[in-house]
Design goal:
With about 350 residues, the protein is an alpha+beta fold. The protein has one domain: 4-Layer Sandwich (Glutamine Phosphoribosylpyrophosphate, subunit 1, domain 1). About 35% of the residues lie in helices and about 20% in strands. An eight-stranded mixed beta sheet has the order 4-3-2-6-5-1-11-12. A five-stranded mixed beta sheet has the order 7-8-9-10-13. It starts with a helix and ends with a strand. The structure holds aspartic acid (ASP). Aspartic acid binds next to strand 8.
């Protein structure tokens, strides 16, 4: 069932109302500002500090994201990321630099825990925007990046458990519930069993930054959807989807089901809505509404016509106004969705605006 006309009208009205009320999000404190997904609290803090010290906004954004890429505890980005269905960790990442209007990206890159550094080199030292797979790996090698094993023991155990549970028509046996490894129990607590069984979920970091002068940059990095097909590329390295920056307007990016974001060019659409004068939060909500309206495949919709997946957007504009919005207010394990932001009032998390409260 598609979203009914009544539901759509309600959704559109909600977008307008939320945008007007400000939806419980904090005060905007002027430039510089960094905004990111909730896993980027330390990242926005560092990016802000770098910009306050006079760093270029992209250097600041990449430095912040590198912290999360280096952290094995974050299983959705960089070192420690959940592997693909073959047990291989493959990264997607991109950067976009407002002042120069340039961008760089890598997809399905293996063996480098900071794919954003490689993406930045693609931007700075080649005539291209996007390098993928073995080509991206070769480019990293000739630029001095080693080939590291990025599969942590926890990620390996989670992958093996997924493999064992995948089907009752293969030779892998499911472990009894009392024999689940503690790492797997922890993972299920964090991400939920349903998402784990159906590998629709993941995580990612997007970070957008605006410096004191109003120069902008954006950066996105991910290990992609859990247990994705080898070679699958999500939205994160796609300029205009996982990230888009226009130095005259603003910067935006997303996390969540990349396929849905690619189909509406989410990052670009948000920036275009901001160009029309929309507040970043309203621009994010309007883009979510576009996704909800244009998703037509039955397998992706609940019986009430709402999308079965999550998408989160983050945006800021040249003036330093910022906002974030999500498809659903709560995650599948019932956690209120938040984003991270840092400005003159410090680094903090705030609740995201949302298109739908419940599934
Ligand atoms: N957007 C990422 C991808 O599709 C995954 C995520 O953010 O959960 O690869």
């Amino acid at each position: 069932m598609r979203l009914s006309r009544r539901e759509l009208l309600r959704t559109t009205a909600a977008v307008a109302a939320l945008a007007q009320t400000g939806q419980a999000q904090g005060k905007e404190g002027g430039r510089p500002v960094a905004i990111s997904s909730a896993n980027g609290l330390r990242a926005v803090e560092l990016a802000l500090r770098r910009m306050q010290e006079g760093a270029d906004p992209l250097d600041a954004a990449v430095a912040g994201v590198n912290l999360v890429e280096d952290d094995p505890a974050d299983m959705t980005v960089g070192y420690g990321g959940v592997p693909n269905e073959e047990g291989v960790v493959q990264f997607d990442a991109c950067v976009m630099h407002g002042p120069s209007g340039r961008a760089g990206a890598v997809a399905a890159l293996e063996g480098v825990k900071n794919p954003t550094k490689v993406a930045k080199l693609v931007m700075e030292t080649t005539d291209h925007v996007l390098l993928v797979g073995p080509g991206a790996r070769h480019f990293a090698t000739v630029n001095g990046f080693g080939n590291e094993n990025l599969l942590t023991e926890k990620a390996r155990k989670v992958w093996l458990f997924w493999k064992q549970n995948l089907s009752d028509k293969d030779k892998w046996l499911e472990p009894e519930p009392d024999r689940y490894p503690p790492e797997v129990k922890e993972f299920i607590e964090q991400f939920g069993w349903d998402d784990f069984r159906r590998p629709q979920s993941g995580g990612t970091i997007h970070l957008s930054a605006v410096d004191t002068r109003g120069d902008l940059a954006g950066c996105t990095s991910t290990s992609g959807l859990f247990f994705k097909m080898p070679g699958r590329v999500g939205d994160s390295p796609i300029i205009g989807a996982g990230c888009f920056t226009d130095n005259e307007v603003g910067s935006a990016g997303g996390t969540g089901r990349g396929e849905a974001n690619i189909l509406v060019s989410g990052g670009h659409l948000i920036v275009e809505f901001m160009r029309q004068g929309k507040h970043p939060r309203e621009a994010c909500l309007m883009t979510l509404e576009r996704i909800a309206r244009t998703t037509r495949e039955k397998r992706l919709l609940f019986a009430n016509g709402r999308p079965k997946f999550d998408i989160s957007f983050y945006a800021l504009d040249k003036a330093g106004r910022y906002g974030s919005a999500v498809m659903y207010a709560f995650s599948t394990i019932g956690k209120r969705r938040q984003f991270a932001v840092a400005d003159a009032s410090g680094a903090r998390k705030e609740d995201c605006a949302f298109l739908f409260e419940r599934r």
